[in-house]
Design brief:
Length: 212
């Protein structure tokens, strides 16, 4: 009887030990899935936000007559950190999302709209700790345009860049500045390419630069 009791006691201890080991194992697995270490080590927090006025020249090819539309545009970028263990320095490359919307009235009096939503990569020349820096980017995504009754969606590319000017280059980590951006935006909607499309944006940029 004593041997059976000892055996049951030892079995219970082993079972409790296995249950206790399962809980931290589960939490470690969840942490690895939600917060992968390589990704956290390579990507910095958001580097800048921008938004402002947008002027877009649309059409002029087979898609129809040229129009000048006015609206808004905005973007957000996230700088990529070097994956090389020996350096772990920031690169001049960022991941960027770019969005815009413009509006105009056509010759027949109907209200027209155009929206752009693209993503891509951006390269910056100059440090964000300097008063002025320039950037260039390549964007790919879509566009939607139409009137109050119907709209069409197609493919769009964006090639361009801009200039950022901040007010306190040696000041705090966060800063406000002026952004001027220019883009060439060829698109394909309803099977027709429209290439003579250009967008100019002027607005404010909110810099986060202590990762630079």
């Amino acid at each position: 009887m004593l041997r059976k009791h000892d055996a049951d006691f030892a079995s219970d201890v082993q079972r409790e030990g296995r249950e206790q080991m399962k809980q931290p194992t589960v939490w470690v697995f969840v942490s690895m899935v939600l917060f992968p270490a390589p990704l956290m080590a390579q990507v910095n927090p958001v580097n800048d936000f921008s938004g402002g006025l947008s002027v877009f020249t649309i059409g002029g090819d087979a898609a129809g007559p040229r129009h000048t539309a006015i609206g808004w545009q905005a973007s957000a970028s996230q700088k990529i950190k070097s994956a090389v263990e020996a350096t772990k320095k920031d690169t001049p490359i960022s991941i960027v999302g770019d969005f815009g919307g413009q509006f105009w009235t056509s010759d027949d009096g109907s209200h027209q709209h155009a929206y752009e939503y693209m993503g891509g990569v951006r390269a910056r020349a100059g440090s964000l700790k300097q008063r002025t820096s320039v950037f260039a980017h390549a964007l790919f995504g879509g566009t939607t345009r139409g009137d109050d009754l119907a709209s069409a969606t197609g493919f769009m590319m964006g090639y361009g860049g801009g200039l950022d000017m901040v007010s306190h280059p040696s000041g705090p980590a966060y800063d406000l500045g002026l952004r001027i951006q220019f883009d060439w935006l060829p698109s394909r909607v309803n099977g027709a390419w429209t290439e003579k499309q250009f967008r100019i944006g002027v607005g404010v940029v909110f810099m986060v630069r202590y990762w630079d």
